[in-house]
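Board notes, transcribed. Complex of a protein with magnesium ion.
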Amino acid sequence: PHTAIIVVAAGSGTRLAGGAPKAFVGIDARSILRHALDGVFAAQPMQVIVVAPAGFEGQAESDLLAAAGERADLGRVVTGGATRQESVSAGLAALWGDIDTVLVHDAARALTPTAVIDAVADSVDGVAGVLPMLPVVDTLKKVDGDMIVAAIDRAELAAAQTPQGFPRGALEAAYEDAREAGVEYTDDAALFAAAGHAVRRIAGSERGFKITTQADLERARHLLTASAP
Ligand code: CTP
Ligand code: MG
């Protein structure tokens, strides 16, 4: 394949406080990482780089092998860094072979539908990045301290999900720019856009939410129970 997906799973999960690094907290019998990888390996064949917390590479390897089935040769585990950006960099450095398209995916978005992963992979051209997004449903205000200073038209806003897809060369150059400038970005699309590149949006999914808190974990558990055969 000419496409790779970097699944970042090296965070500690401070807000979830699940007793283990977030990627290894169970949703059901399967971990958050395992569910994320089940979705990835159900998509079109692509190289899969799992970025694990230091000391948890073996556990990540187990989840990778279990999810990969006959595609085990497409997968590899590397060690992450102190920030998400460093973890993505470690993933980029581990790419091998003839890869021209790179997706970056949060393991924490464990229930992301395979259709979204395929749609992102199929939408990357040689130039622009691709970002799955959902409409914003909340009424939003701009605030200053405890004062509301402006209303925000939510029609102008959308919420970003992952995987985010990019042409490899431009993404690597953008990561190098960010490293040299010492700037930390909130997501890969922001880092890519800061390097002067266009990013297009496609439709995300309600199931692509990020498991951040215990309430999110409960939501994931409920969705799995509700969709069980
Ligand atoms: N991530 C990573 N390396 C880091 C920090 C985050 O690979 N140093 C990954 C996480 O594993 C997660 C994704 O980036 O899949 C999104 O990050 P987040 O949801 O913030 O996860 P954590 O940083 O683990 O959680 P928290 O911020 O609550 O500690
Ligand atoms: Mg975090």
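The longest helix spans residues 168-181. The radius of gyration is 17 Å.
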